Fold this protein.
Amino acid sequence: MKSLKKIIAIAITLTMVATLAIGMAASAATIIITPPARLVLDDNDFGAYQIFTVTTADGSNFSYTINPEFSGFNVAGFMTANGIASTAPYSPDLQGLLNYIGDLVAGATKDELMRALAIALKEYGDGDGITPNATEISGTLNGTNVQFAGLANGYYVVFGEGIAKGGDKVTSLCILVTVDDFNGNPAGTFTIPLKADAPEITKTVYNHGENDWIDWTDISTSNIAEFKLDTMVPDMTGYDEYWFIIHDRMSAGLTFNDDIEVFLNGALYPATAGAVTNYTITKPAGLTFMISFNPEVFVNLPYGAAIQVKYSATLNKNALIGPDDNPERNLNEAKLEYSNNPYDTGAGKTGETPWETVFVYTFDVDIFKYTGEDDTPVAEAQFLLQYNPTDNYYFDDFFLGDNYLFVVFEYEGLVGGVATYRAVSYDGLSGAVKTALGAMYASAKAGNQIAAPAVGDYTLILTSPAGGYVKVIGTDAGEYELIETYTPSQFNLLPAPIVVDVIHDSASDNPIVAGDMGVYHIEQDGDETDVVGVLNSSGTIFPGTGGIGRTIFIVVGLTVMTGAVITLIVRKSMAKTRKAYNN
């Protein structure tokens, strides 16, 4: 028998075996397989074959005896397939092959031969898939680990799969390990990490109200939502190439802006570097885009390197408003496709992460202009909608007038008798439109009536129709002020703006799970309401001389005249009395 030192060298090459010493003790060895952070284990996915038994007489001279089940292993065929001309000075059998490989200098060739031998031994034990050549040893689940207990001392190949997030399985490199139960390891327990990994991906959207990257945001239509994908280079030990593909798709309410940037460890990672292609970006059917990393280049990236992808989309006219039974509400989602078998790395030999989803919410506001106790609609009243942001991120999306921000609208016409306006971004308008809006603002501030818009026109002014109802579609959450600039001649302007709050009630990290789906409400001057009511009253008439003033004048005049008559009569009476007295 050959020296055990050769087998020890092989085990160290794989970094899959503890300090090894063999003796004549009774068999009681245990192999424990532990999962990496991103995988879970199921004992039904694991097995082992014993290749050799091991004995020793004095703890330093060891004897390996091949398991008869593996005596038919085609050593010559393996040598030919892997470029080994001879195992000299060792015998041309399996033990001689192991000793030959053990003598090789540590490096890629030695590692590759050991990986190839491990899978070849496993596949030989499996047989033709119907009749195995060897007796498979089953593992059992112990907490999060899989263990093989009560093993006879020997040399084993252990194989299995980990389960990734989403349920796809990732094949581990086969593990070659010698186990024993003596000489420094009386418990005979060998703990070995599973040689497999699976990447994960996180998707977020920037929420300026929260000042953080989270899984939802709320913006006005035609505003830009910024997205970010974060993942990392997985452990690709044993792979000759590695498929790593990002799939992304957006709902109809989002328009992709074609502005992808890829970063590796914080530095911009170009699609090409000289003649080398790092990745390609395509737009296959059913996806917004797909980033396919070059498998032959990606496999050489350092383990743990951070990969980040940034891009944006514009919320368009197809955006869904507020809560709805449809869960696909202005969503953007991404998933990762990755290699999951180091022994089969061709195209399509991959697993996938679950879709990661973020949401972009937008809301609407209903306004009713009326008068009187019977809520009579008032037509041709006009308003500006001032926005009071909590930060200046969206500054360019609004018209700036007198140091205040005002919402710009596109008029969509009468919908069921309701004048319908959609909030749009000022920044994206042409220079001519911006000039016209500036003139419109100045005229409205001067109290002039602004001509009603045609469908498709951009305007700052909301004009009430005959029915009194106005709908503003696609607003961001936040505080607004409704300012009346013009009202029909028989009515007075509002003495002060109406404060309108659009309040997004969602505070969850996962709107779908929480079931809130962008729930929101409107407040008018601090009170919750379904419709912002704008009440105008006719002015009262100032008093005139033909009114109460004239009445007072007549009453006072008659009183004075009556007093004069009474005084005259009294004086005449007193004169007669004095004359009679003097006589």
User: Anything to note?
Assistant: The domain at 363-535 is CATH 2.60.40.10 (Immunoglobulin-like).
